[in-house]
Specification:
With about 300 residues, the protein is mostly helical. It has helices at about 65-80, 90-100, 105-115, 120-125, 130-135, 145-160, 165-170, 175-180, 190-200, 210-215, 230-240, 245-265. It starts with about 60 loop residues before the first helix and ends in a 43-residue tail after the last helix.
C-alpha cells in the first residue's frame, strides 16, 4: 500500500498522469510555458500518487540504478507536476508537430486558430486545403513545413488506420515508432512525444534538459552528448533500460527533469547547490562517473562547468 511518499528506498510509480508534451531540442525551449496555459488539463488527477501505487523497484534488496534515486529525489522536492494542457489526443499530436523550433506560446496561438475554425480533428485536417491550413498555422513558425507534416500524418492515419487513433495506438510500440519516423517531418522527439503523451506508450522522450542534466552528472557516454540520432537513442535507451517501462513514470520523470532544468540546471549559471540532485554530482557521491566534474561547487554563486 502506498503511504504518500515516493522517496523511500523502494519508491513508487505515480498513477496515470496527464499526457505531457515535451518540446524539441533547441535554444528556444519553452516547456514551462505550458504550465501557464488556459487550456484545461486532459485527464487531470489531483495527485501523482494513487492509493495503490505500483512499486518502482522490483526488489528492496536489489541495488537500484541511479536514475531511480534521481526520480525519488526530484519527486520528493517538487511533487507531481500535473502536466499537459490539452483536450484530446489529436490536439496533443498537433502540438507535438507544431512545437518544432518555436515557443509554446506560438503553438497555443496556432492551436487556438484551429479550434476556432473547428479543425482539431483528423477529418477536418484531411479536408482543408494546404493554403488555408497554413494560414491557421502561421503563428507557430515554419508553417508551410508544418502544414505538410500535419497533412502527411493525417494521410498516414487514414491510409493505414482508417482515421482511427484507437487503431493507431494499439499498434505495438516498436512498429508504430518506425512508422512515425518514416513520415516526412517527424523525427525521434516528435515521434516519441506522440507515442508517450497521446498514445500512452512506454517511450521516454529526450530533450535539451535531459541531455544537459545527464551530461553534467557524468551519466552520458562521449558519443551521446550531441544532437545526433545516435545520441538521442543512447539517452533514450539509458532511461528505458534503468526504469520500469511505464508511461506514467516516464511522464512524471520528464516533467520533473524540465522543472529542474528551468530552476537549477540552467544552460548558463546553473544553481547546483540548491538543486535536489546536488548530492549526485560527480564531485560528491558518485566519483566513478566524473566525466563533467564542476570546476567549483560553491553555494554563494552559480557553478561553472567545463
Amino acid at each position: 500500500m502506498l503511504r504518500g511518499k515516493i522517496g523511500r528506498a523502494t519508491g513508487y510509480l505515480p498513477p496515470q498522469q496527464l499526457p505531457f508534451l515535451d518540446l524539441p531540442f533547441c535554444d528556444r525551449y519553452r516547456a514551462f510555458e505550458m504550465l501557464k496555459s488556459s487550456v484545461p488539463l486532459k485527464n487531470a488527477t489531483s495527485s501523482a500518487l494513487s492509493a495503490t501505487g505500483t512499486p518502482l523497484a522490483a526488489s528492496a534488496s536489489a541495488p537500484k540504478p541511479v536514475l531511480y534515486s534521481y526520480f525519488d529525489s526530484l519527486f520528493a522536492a517538487y511533487g507531481p507536476q500535473h502536466w499537459w494542457p490539452g483536450r484530446t489526443r489529436f490536439e496533443i499530436i498537433v502540438g507535438a508537430i507544431l512545437t518544432q523550433n518555436t515557443s509554446w506560446k506560438n503553438v497555443e496561438r496556432a492551436i487556438a486558430n484551429l479550434r476556432s475554425a473547428k479543425l482539431l480533428s483528423p477529418a477536418a485536417i484531411a479536408k482543408i486545403s494546404p493554403a488555408r491550413l497554413a494560414a491557421h498555422l502561421r503563428p507557430s513558425g515554419y508553417f508551410r513545413q508544418k502544414t505538410q507534416t500535419l497533412k502527411t500524418f493525417v494521410s498516414f492515419l487514414f491510409e493505414k488506420y482508417e482515421g482511427s487513433l484507437n487503431s493507431l495506438f494499439t499498434t505495438p510500440t516498436n512498429v508504430l515508432r518506425e512508422q512515425l519516423l518514416a513520415l516526412r517531418g517527424i523525427g525521434p522527439e516528435t515521434a516519441d512525444s506522440i507515442l508517450l503523451y497521446a498514445g500512452d506508450h512506454p517511450v521516454f522522450v529526450v530533450d535539451a534538459y535531459s541531455r544537459r542534466l545527464l551530461g553534467r552528472h557524468g551519466l552520458l557516454r562521449p558519443g551521446a552528448q550531441g544532437g545526433s540520432r545516435r545520441a538521442y537513442e543512447q539517452i533514450r535507451s539509458l532511461f528505458e533500460s534503468q526504469l520500469p517501462r511505464d508511461p506514467r513514470l516516464f511522464n512524471e520523470f520528464h516533467a520533473l527533469i524540465v522543472r529542474t532544468g528551468k530552476g537549477h540546471c540552467r544552460k548558463t549559471a546553473p544553481l547546483c547547490c540548491s538543486c535536489p540532485l546536488s548530492s549526485f554530482l560527480p564531485a560528491s557521491s558518485h566519483p566513478a562517473i566524473a566525466i563533467h566534474e564542476p570546476r567549483s561547487v560553491r553555494c554563494d554563486r552559480p557553478v561553472t562547468f567545463l
